Amino acid sequence: MRAYYFDNLTGDQCALHDSGRAVSEEHLSALGVLHWKIIPIDEAGNWQGEIDSVAKEKSYKNREVINITKEGLGDAYESKLKMFYEEQCLHITEHPPDNWIRIHVTPGDLLVVPAGIYHRFGLDELNRIRTMRLFKVRLMFSS
Fold first, then answer.
1. Of 63, 96, 109, 114, which is least packed with CB atoms within 10 Å of its CB?
2. What is the rounded distance in angstroms from the CA atom of residue 113 to the CA atom of residue 118?
3. Per the record's keyword annotation, is Amino-acid biosynthesis included, yes or no (predicted)?
4. Four-residue CA torsion sign, 115, 79, 140, 65
């Protein structure tokens, strides 16, 4: 995991947009963002036991896996990517002064973002991410 202030420049939203101003894990923790590095527990890369342990410790009863790739989403990729970026690497805001912090994650990074903190998801130049959301309340959706 690497965290830094977003540069707010226009252009490709998948570019790193690194302002050159790093954000420490201690600063993220002060904002309520927690980080673990989950290590696979066997040669097959299974990490389920560690995720289950953190979920139990933090009382996360529900989970949802999101897999965003150009191949997987096909023609809907561009519109979905824009939706994730505009509505939801993870960006969080710092209040005040409403600066975006970009958190560039790699496989095995587990972040806890506190309830109520505004955030959004984005992709880096690899254009793919597989994430799992853990949450305490059940999400309801009606269309």
1. 96
2. 9
3. yes
4. negative
Give one DSSP letter per residue of 46-63, joined into a string: --HHHHHHHHHHTT--EE
> How would you classify residue 32: left for phi > 0, otherwise alpha for psi between -120 and 50, otherwise beta?
left
Residues 6+ apart with CB under 8 A from 35: 1, 25, 28, 29, 109, 110, 111, 112
- Tens of pLDDT along 34-66? 898 888 777 776 788 888 888 899 888 888 887
Nearest to 8 by CA among 80, 70, 97: 97
Alpha helices in the chain (DSSP H): 25-30, 48-57, 70-73, 77-87
84-139 tens-digit pLDDT: 655 447 778 777 667 889 998 888 888 888 878 888 777 788 877 778 888 876 55
Q: Both tokens of residue 54?
A: 């953190």
